């Protein structure tokens, strides 16, 4: 098992490199193991894979049958993170929702830092957290800039070393509050100590997110910028990289694909009265036995 300092160190170095990182959601040790082993040869001698994994509050709550309303605290989720770390050496970015009360957030930062988490993302909403992609369909409120900056500073001050990154996630575009407000907030968050910015958008054409990247890069050419293309699914990784993003997070696809397959398998066995028809869609027993070291 890697020590916590060795685990944290690579992410900041990777974000300082001249390439964009691919980050995949992992909600269990087996999904993290699959993310770490995924490789694709795109040209002779040149393979790509995932540089880090994303611990999503949505998928962590969903797999427990709980609503995505910040019901799980970092304390609830840490045992699962430690299980992932037992089998996966990729850096982990932790989705901390709103961060909760500043006083609680400062304590949770120490816990996450000790566990070996590489970066923590908090969003600038307040009140009962609702999933961002619901947008203005539900009641969602943004924290004031001053209060959110104070929470960021509390988290930064709570760190015992320099390894854990603090990422501020801006929800202004999600809530249709415009590019100007989103930019003002993000610049303020950087001044308050954020090590990077995650900008979120639910516009499916992707134009909004690309324009934000263009404007942000004019203001802060070196600050890490992260996006989550759950809505603008047609935009390829290379397009987002050229736009100036330092990391692209595929934030819920491992859980969504797994549960779709399990649902269809459960119904298929009932429909066919046997598993023969489902076997081609299942990982072979031999592959399962070989997936986890020491099984054979």
Automatic annotation (TrEMBL):
This is phosphoenolpyruvate mutase. SUPFAM superfamilies: Phosphoenolpyruvate/pyruvate domain. Gene3D superfamilies: Phosphoenolpyruvate-binding domains (3.20.20.60). Its EC number is 5.4.2.9. It comes from Pseudomonas fluorescens. Keywords: Isomerase, Metal-binding, Pyruvate. Belongs to the isocitrate lyase/PEP mutase superfamily. PEP mutase family. InterPro entries: ICL/PEPM (IPR039556), PEnolPyrv_PMutase_core (IPR012698), Pyrv/PenolPyrv_kinase-like_dom (IPR015813), Pyrv_kinase-like_dom_sf (IPR040442). One of its GO terms (molecular function) is phosphoenolpyruvate mutase activity. Pfam families: PEP_mutase.
């Amino acid at each position: 098992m890697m020590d916590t300092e060795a685990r944290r160190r690579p992410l900041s170095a990777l974000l300082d490199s001249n390439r964009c990182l691919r980050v995949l959601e992992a909600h269990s040790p087996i999904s993290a193991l699959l993310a770490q082993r995924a490789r694709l040869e795109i040209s002779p001698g040149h393979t790509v894979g995932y540089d880090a994994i994303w611990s999503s509050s949505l998928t962590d709550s969903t797999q427990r049958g709980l609503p995505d309303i910040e019901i799980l605290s970092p304390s609830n989720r840490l045992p699962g993170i430690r299980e992932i770390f037992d089998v996966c050496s990729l850096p982990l970015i932790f989705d901390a929702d709103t961060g909760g009360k500043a006083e609680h957030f400062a304590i949770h930062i120490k816990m996450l830092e000790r566990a070996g988490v590489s970066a923590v993302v908090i969003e600038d909403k307040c009140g009962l957290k609702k999933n961002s992609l619901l947008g203005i369909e539900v009641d969602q409120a943004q924290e004031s800039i001053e209060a959110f900056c104070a929470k960021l500073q509390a988290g930064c001050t709570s760190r015992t070393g320099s390894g854990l990154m603090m990422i501020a996630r801006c929800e202004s575009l999600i809530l249709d509050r415009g590019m100007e407000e989103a930019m003002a907030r993000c610049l303020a968050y950087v001044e308050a100590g954020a090590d990077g910015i995650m900008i979120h958008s639910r516009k499916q054409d992707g134009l909004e997110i690309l324009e934000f990247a263009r404007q942000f890069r004019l203001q802060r050419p070196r600050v890490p910028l992260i996006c989550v293309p759950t809505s603008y699914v047609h935009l390829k990784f290379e397009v987002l990289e050229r736009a100036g993003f330092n990391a692209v997070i595929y934030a819920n696809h491992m859980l969504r694909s797994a549960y779709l397959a399990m649902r269809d398998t459960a119904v298929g066995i009932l429909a066919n009265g046997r598993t023969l028809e489902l076997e081609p869609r299942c990982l072979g027993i031999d592959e399962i036995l070989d997936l986890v070291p020491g099984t054979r």
